[in-house]
Specification:
heterodimer; A: 805 residues; Beta-Lactamase; Phosphatase 2c, domain 1; Heat Shock Protein 90; 30 strands; 24% strand; B: 126 residues; Transcription Regulator spoIIAA; six-stranded mixed β-sheet; 26% strand; globular
Amino acid sequence: MYFKNTLSGRLNAWLITLVSLILGITSGIGYVISKDHVLTEARLQARDTVKESVFELETMLHGLVQSTNKLGFVLGYSSITPQKANKVLFDLIQSNQRLYGAAIALEPGYSIDSRGYASYAFRKDEAVKMLDLTAGRENPADYLSQSWYISAKETGQSVWSEPYFDELGGKVLMVTYSVPIFQSTSPLLYQEANQEFIGVVTADIELSRLSDFMNQIRVGESGYAMLVSDQGTLMSFPDPELMLSPITDLYPADDQSKGTAFTKQILGREAGVIKTRCFHSEEECLVGHTELASSGWSFVVVLEEDEFLAPIRDYLFRIIGIGLLTLALLLVVIHVVTKKVITPISSLSRLVGRIGEGDLSTVLPKVKSKDEVHTLVEAVNSMQNHLKQYIRDLEKETALSARLRGEMDAATQIQMAMLPGEGNFEFSGAAYEMFALLDPAKSVGGDLYFHYPVDDKKSYFVIGDVSDKGVAAALFMAKTITLLNQMVIQGKEPSELLFELNNELEKNNDACMFVTLWCGILDHESLELRYASGGHMAPLMCSDQCLDSNETVGVFEEIPQENGMALGLMTDADFPENHLKLNPGDKLFLYTDGIDEARNSDDQFYGMDRLKTVLSEGIDKSPKSISQAVYGSVKTFAEGTSQSDDITVMAIKTSDSKVSVIAEQDTAQASSQLPVACSSIHMLFEFIETFWKEYALPEERLFDVKLCSEELLSNIVKYSGLTESDTVEVSLSSADGVLIVDIVDAGVPFNPFEEAPEPELGKPSDECQIGGLGVHLIKELAGTLSYERDQNSSVNKVKLTFDLL
Amino acid sequence: MPLEISEVQGQSANVKRLMIGGSLDTETAPELDAKISSLVSDAIDLLVLDMKPLDFISSAGLRVIFKATKQMKAKGGQLAVANRQSHITKVFDIVKALPDLQIFRNEDEMDDYLAAMQDKFKSGES
């Protein structure tokens, strides 16, 4: 397709359209303007063609008219003798080739012969013949009634006749000019008054001569002339059949109105051009007519309009031809020129397109012209070079960035390696289990945690937060950790440890960096926690333990703590000692301010309340679970924002019960102190199951022992009046195939075997009394059972035995 | 040992099935109590406690089951226990199975009964 959507295509399209339009319009205007001119020219030409003929005819007629008039005048002043008259007539005819005949006719009163005088001379066979019009007739005075006589006599004017057939004289078709002869009664010449009519002199023209003359007139190819009398009779016509017909006969009988109008116009004195249907064909014709002054006849020329307009049409075709040719040439020119101009642009656009795709190695062609295209090429070249340079620079920077990142990753690894568990630390021991997690905000950070189990008697716990973040904090953190590692080996108490650590950190600390640090030692036996804090927040601890399906569980509160200042700022700073006695199952939660000071997208802080809520809800979770829950909660909270601070958590849970197992040869023994609460039941089960596994006791009895122990414990929880701060001692001993369960509680005196009501069994459920079911089970499952109240120590002692074999 | 309760998707709208696992003791019994209380309604004709994964039961657990039987009966329905392990069955036997309690010894028994229940439901009987 030529007119595709390219610059050259569009240019071509526009130019061709506009040029065609302009050419068309100018040609059109030219045609319209010239048409008239051409028409006028054509008309003039046509007129010119007939002008001569008209002139000739007119001249002849005029000549005839003048001569005859003169003759008539002269005859009026002389006496007319027949001889004279004949001679005049004879000479007239002989000398005038154009005249067919001439006659002189006198009134009877004025002629020699009283019968009258009418003499006629006419041409016949190249000779002139004389005819006496009075002779050889019945009525010699016939001539007096001829129209040619009467018309002149009655009008007193010279008059042309209608064409007629002359019977009397020449016996041909002719037209006669009659001139009245007047004789003056007064002797004076030129006196108008007293003119007496004495006769007529006529001149005849043969119609055939006229029509021959007319018929040889050619106007163009198809045009012809006709002569119309002043009464509207055709005196000549190419078709001889229509001779002497009224010109209305040229029109068909049913169109006589046109004929009448036509006749009227023709006979009018004004010359003119009538457009009408051709008389000899179906075409349109132009009829030009003019009045011959000498005769009042109309000289009519008929021309086919097409022929008449032929010049116009030729002109039009010529114009169109020229126009098309011009257009074709212009098209070629346009095409060539646009191509020449556009080619560099289109090739340029292609190449720039390639550059745009990313092929910066594309080379643009040199442009010789100093025009916009040149400017464009220069600009693109410059842009290309800049891009290449930019990409080179970017690549360099990226490489540098990548290297730096690599170094940072290495640094992160080294730093995390300093921490136990490398940021994700799980530890489970006899006295406690713990979990610690550290997530630095950037690759390297300033938070730290530390754990050191000295022996089976005590362990160190440390958590800290260096001021600021990033590489500087990381280096300071590294220094701190390294020092910690050294100091814990020395076995110092927290207070002293922090004191010395502070002094070390203060040295060479021109940047005034500092670290908040919490350090604690847990005694495994007594569960005593000795701790000191250098500006770090107190750990949270859970104080309540009861699992009741309706109450909210566990409240975490800060442990009482006397603070020292942050480490690294002032030498010989003081770090007060703190003590706290923990219970089995207590939960400690340590953290850095990356937790409570975490922000969400609305700039709200996570806060202590949220932390305490999450901890409370996870009361029965392991240290690992609860740490992950808190971490997850903080992350969710801060979603959408970037981590602003390092996040560190450490959860510690002291073991629930102290199990001491004394290994002996044949006997196995264990006892456990359990709080008086429903929540101790699973601890009871653990205790029993551990014992069972330890001594590989038969599986079949495990269930029974568990059930009976559980029932007894429940009873104590319900009826002993003791609370969860009190304990019940459960002892197991296995010897000689017999398992003994001893349960000792310091509650109110209560014998479960007697004071629990007997259950009614086998009755429909709504009648069955619920109480005592447990005791019934014990009675059924245990071998022996006994109850004793020790009055001295105010304890209840229940003993059950089971056969293991 | 904790208690695990899960609802088993059944085919009838009038039958509810709970899978009870772990230990049903004084400590954990209240959980089951709460769960059963939330399920008991006029729409339920049968509540089945599938005890296949249950390892331990004490009197506290039994009490909850007795209460549940009463609750179901009050709503015109029935409680059933199924697939009890041997030591669990032993405990039930010691306290003597309640007359109102429906017991399915195995899966097939339970399936047959459930099918019958479904037909009953479909045919519009209550």
